[in-house]
Protein: Histidine ammonia-lyase
Organism: Sphingomonas gilva
Amino acid sequence: MLLSPGAVSYADWRAIHDGADVRLDPACRAAVAESAAAVERILAAGEPVYGINTGFGKLASVRIEAGDLATLQRNIVLSHAAGVGEPMPAPVVRLMMALKLASLARGASGVAPRTVELIEAMLERDLLPVIPAQGSVGASGDLAPLAHMAAAMIGVGEILVDGRRVEAGRALVDAGLAPLELGPKEGLALLNGTQFSCAHALAGLFAAERLYRVGLVTGILSTEAAKGSDAPFDHRIHALRGHRGQIETANALRRMMEGSGIRASHRVDDLRVQDPYCLRCQPQVMGAVLDLLRQAAATLVTEANGVSDNPLIFADTDEALSGGNFHAEPVAFAADMIALALCEIGGIAERRIAMLVDPALSGLPAFLTPRPGLNSGFMIPQVTAAALVSENKQRATPASVDSIPTSANQEDHVSMAAHGSRRLLEMAANVDAILAIELLAGAQGCDFHAPLTSSAPVEAVRALLRAEVPTLTDDRHMAPDIEAAIALVRSSALLDATGPLPGLES
């Protein structure tokens, strides 16, 4: 895939995360070279310039002599590589590297062409630095994790090669690459920026978009199991309110119920005037989720195509301007929005599960078992879903409001975007399990309506599940059933079976 800095689409970033090859647009190379030349001219002028011939952060007033400039850049990488915790997931590392590549290739960071070429070559060879996931506050850039990436580029630390952790210098040499020798400004350019936070936020967004769609499918399955009405999905209701996401969600839900024999069986003699909110208000809740995710996507795609290190080099005037593009507040806000969306996808799904296992609300056998009492059925899977929802409620607390001063109060307001973005994949994993439990419960509920069948899309989903998990007649070991359903939720098969559903690019 051709990476055109400043013009990379949401779909392209998702493809990179999923493993697509990356090739930098050759048209950007002239700007990179000119930016590096501008740094040399700035140095020749002899004036102190932050990050080029001075110390960093609170030490910016310390002037560095010309003979120590290479050591300065190496030192900042090594000293800032102070992360802790579990390594970043490999797809997120790949995405972070591509984000950094695109940022540097805009030609405003002052790095030499060889630096850009090394990142490109590492991506091409799938050489992914081992990067601890904790240690950034989202300003002054994602310093610690990006420093670990930069350390691998100079041959320090470890690189993942074919699933094995290999000493970085050895991994580079074995791949036919030489460890990088940093020039003026280059260490700072590599470790200053929002790419760690942005990569995690994008990865969370990709997961949230999939879960929004899966939540529509499991929601309709539950609606059919409870013999719910499709009247709340009538397009006239949603047109009067006007929210795009709500309108598109209602249309999708209505389409998935078209032709349902279960719905037709109770259309005339339905005694329930109104369904519970977890069924009736699906367009309003999930539509708001879709609108929120689209807003987050717009922010993150803009961020992904921007330049967020400091200082920035303007080659036309030979200026190095210090600013604050490293402050990841836009990413932090986007991550908080995604967290809210994930929380609500899981929250309303759990309410549908609870409704289905309650005979007073669903009209189905207690806990969805043919012989309640002797069997517990879906009693504890609903408890598991409730536990996961509560975990996500706690994690959805906004991270962006939790600033903490760092660097001797020089960096006195930070975004916490790294923490806010990093939690998203864990939240998404919880929602995977919640929707998997709803998939099982909804299918079990529909089984009680046999020989009536649902619509073609819903029956296709039920067939996929039943190929892996049989109907629950008597109690059995539930964990394997849930794991099989989780695998289905995470696969493309479930969504392929339903036809097109709204998304962030539709």
